[in-house]
Amino acid sequence: MQLSLVETIGDRVRYYRERKKISQKELGEKAGVSQQTIQKLENGDITRTKVLPEIAEILSISEKYLREGKGSPNELSEVPKPEQSFDANKVADLALECFDEAVKSIRSVKIRRNDDPNVDAIKDSELIKHAMKACLVTRLGGDYLSVAIEMAYDEAKNS
After folding, report:
1. Is 0.85 topped by the overall pTM?
2. Domain 3-78 - what CATH class?
């Protein structure tokens, strides 16, 4: 199936399920519904189900994209999954580097927006979380950091 033909919820479920190489039965089991529910969803017989958030998570796409087909799928779905074994020290080092980079980037955004440049770990925890996630995506493949920090900053200011 071509990505341009992924017009309905059912099309998107089928496309990303096949892309992950899992059966309707497997997806249903992971989402807590029957294989028949997944089949009906893919065939367009049903368009709403309470497990769409679970299905989106299993398929590694955003729930909004799954429901509406607007925007792009979650960028994290494009990041290669790490191997089963990994070096915990390297992961810890990467997390620390991303934390430092997040704090510096948030401070930079605050200065550009004439806001208090101090970064408070409690008050700015959501910004830090989003910036660290963006940093990890960047390090694993993609350049989303500056855009993500700007978006997270606006989101936090509007909360």
Report:
1. no
2. mainly alpha
